[in-house]
Specification:
The chain is α+β, with helices and mostly antiparallel strands. The protein has helices at about 20-30, 65-75, 95-105, and strands spanning about 10-15, 30-35, 35-45, 45-55, 60-65, 80, 85, 90, 95, 125-130, 140-145, 145-155, 160-165, 170.
């Protein structure tokens, strides 16, 4: 019989520039975390340097059971504070599917794909990407300057957009 996990994705706030250190500490404690980053090239005097840049400053995602998540700052002294969902007045939880979609989008280095407007979609359509590097991602379609873009939303946290050929999309 398969065991059901009560783990959830919580949004944790950190002090400035502490995201990586806290990620490492939680990893050592065998706590699953996700820190959205991207690689950038910075020019330093006489050289170019490739560095990892945090996409959402002072924010880290923690996957744990609620009791274990609350124990991190309270009993283990990890310097984090969890975001609160003001509607429910409980810890803000990112649904597993949204978190996986977000992680997939963040894992792709080049999000610009040439557009093909053969299929007709309307602004606000719920869609799924059926081909390409974003296959399986679901989101909401928006139109910007005659280009189709898929909007992936993590409620109350961040939204990511990517350009995808319309023939890679299907309505859901």
């Amino acid at each position: 019989m398969e065991e059901v996990s009560d783990k959830q994705w919580f949004v944790a706030k950190t002090r400035a520039n502490q995201e990586r250190a806290i990620r490492e500490r939680l990893t050592e404690m065998n706590i699953e975390t996700y820190l959205p980053t991207r690689m950038e090239i910075r020019i330093r005097r006489d050289r170019r340097k490739r560095i990892e840049v945090v996409v959402i400053p002072n924010t880290l995602f923690v996957c744990a059971e609620k009791k274990a998540a609350l124990a991190l700052p309270n009993h283990h002294g990890v310097p984090i504070k969890y975001m609160i969902d003001f509607m429910t007045r409980t810890l803000l939880v990112v649904p597993e599917r949204q978190m996986r979609n977000f992680m997939s989008v963040m894992g792709v280095s080049d999000a610009n794909v040439e557009i093909n407007n053969d299929l007709m979609f309307e602004k606000g359509d719920k869609i799924r990407v059926v081909e390409g590097v974003f296959c399986g991602i679901e989101g909401e379609l928006i139109r910007v300057e005659e280009k189709d873009k898929v909007l992936i939303r993590l409620d109350n946290i961040i939204a990511c957009t990517m350009e995808v050929p319309s023939n890679y999309l299907e309505k859901i």
